Amino acid sequence: MKLADIYRSLESDLAKIEEGLELAIDLDVPLLYETSTHLLKAGGKRIRPVFVLLSGQFGRYDIEKVKKIAIPLELIHMATLVHDDVIDNAATRRGQMTVKSKWDNKIAIYTGDYVFAKALSIATELTNPRIHRILANAIREMCIGEIEQIQDLYRSDLTFRQYLLRIKRKTALLISISCQLGALVSEADEKVVSLLKRFGYYVGMAFQITDDILDYTGTEQELGKPAGSDIRQGNITLPAIYALRYSERRDKLLKWIDRKEIEPHLSEIITIIRESGGIDYSRRVAETYFGKAKRELNHLPDLSAKKDLLEVTHFLEQRNY
Ligand code: IPE
Ligand code: IPE
Ligand code: MG
Ligand code: MG
Ligand code: MG
User: Fold this and answer.
1) Torsion sign over Cα 189, 190, 193, 199
2) Residue 209 CB partners (closer than 8 Å, separation 6+)
């Protein structure tokens, strides 16, 4: 089964999610309506709802219940993207202008907050307090990850461990809880819930490493968002960490990063990082995480959703956007 087939097999349920997403931001303040539908209509992979739906199939699957967590998780993701583009000063997202560039930073902050609040109000329809604790914890961790990233800009001595902890917080946890909560609201076996949580964590780690690789290897056209933007801002991701240690030209790299002289040397810096072997190394690390994710799947009961999760993982391994 290919990814398109998986989306097709989930088509009617994903349509309910889309409908729910649109309804969530249907309101009578025209400006907020416009800004929040702007990103929604631009599309996106909807990978978090897909994980919720597939994980939900390991319990007593009821789309009416499962969507009450799938919709909030995609909305939370969207809200963080609107804020992320302010922080990262990004002009494009999903092939469109970002809210911050089409409107401005102030509007983008409230758009993100508004979408966030809508997410939480939909989630309150689920009464299990454990769900809300998990959700709140993930959001809190995300903020910590993003704040630490800001504090660590241009830190050429950033370690591998610090990087891994950061991407766990800013990305992997939300994907992990998409799997965990999908299974939890469907009252799946506790063992299955933890398995899916771990699967989502490993996939999420690989997901952000892939995103950080694509920032070096992709084009704005392919990604729908700016390429090369991490190093431009002084954000030291895995390919750069590797280059700072092992590149033959690491002295130059170190000097420019320490002096925050990225822009005038941008193309040479990117070349040094690309030629350092840092991209291949990052791919190997991502592969290790994808491998761990797939091994978790082995222990799941043999449902069609298990094959589907494997197929989604394969897609994420090969993605170039
Ligand atoms: C982008 O997430 C932000 C990261 C966590 C890397 P996605 O790659 O899932 O973005 P969309 O939703 O498909 O646009
Ligand atoms: C995404 O990190 C993390 C979030 C929590 C939004 P990035 O800043 O790398 O995401 P993109 O590349 O802009 O999508
Ligand atoms: Mg960012
Ligand atoms: Mg960004
Ligand atoms: Mg990125």
Assistant:
1) negative
2) 167, 238, 282, 285, 286, 289
Domain boundaries, the chain: 3-129+137-316
CATH code for residues 3-129+137-316: 1.10.600.10
Tell me the per-residue pLDDT of 24-69, one tens digit each, with 9 for 90 and over: 987 778 999 999 999 999 989 999 999 999 999 999 999 999 999 9
Q: Which residues surround ligand 5, an ion (CB under 5 A)?
A: 211, 215
Regarding the beta carbon of 45 and ligand 1, being less than 6 Å apart is answered yes
- Using DSSP's 3-state secondary structure scheme, residue 181 falls into helix
pTM of the predicted model over 0.90: yes
- Contact in structure between 257 and 285 (CB atoms under 8 Å): no
Closest atom of ligand 2 to 237 CA is 9
Q: How far is the CA of 190 from the centre of ligand 4 (A)?
A: 35
What residues have CB less than 8 Å from 292, skipping those under 6 apart?
A: 202
